[in-house]
Specification:
5-stranded mixed sheet, 92 residues, 5 strands, alpha+beta, 23% helix, 2 helices, Alpha-Beta Plaits
Length: 92
């Protein structure tokens, strides 16, 4: 059973290595998807996993993001279908 979330992270999240930390954590936890900066100053990540507990733990971890970040909010949108991501990437 594949779980797919689109997550918009707001606060002080750009220019503080947030994408790199998200990439590292997703790779460590074997979560597939991507992360990218949005023009509005937020960070967007989409994740896919077969483990609901892992997905929830990752979402909770996003509030830490990086030592220099200050996450104010993580907006969670559950997608109905998975995209079939094969790995995790940083989109520039």
């Amino acid at each position: 059973m594949c779980i797919h979330y689109k997550l918009k992270i707001t606060g002080k999240v750009q220019g503080v290595w947030c994408r790199k930390y998200i990439f590292d954590k997703a790779s460590e936890w074997k979560i597939n998807g991507y992360v990218k900066n949005n023009e509005d100053g937020s960070v967007l990540t989409e994740i896919e996993t077969n483990d609901p507990k892992k997905a929830q733990a990752f979402i909770e971890w996003l509030y830490e993001c990086s030592p220099l970040s200050k996450v104010e909010k993580v907006e969670v949108i559950e997608e109905k279908e998975c995209s079939g991501f094969k790995d995790f990437q940083i989109i520039r």
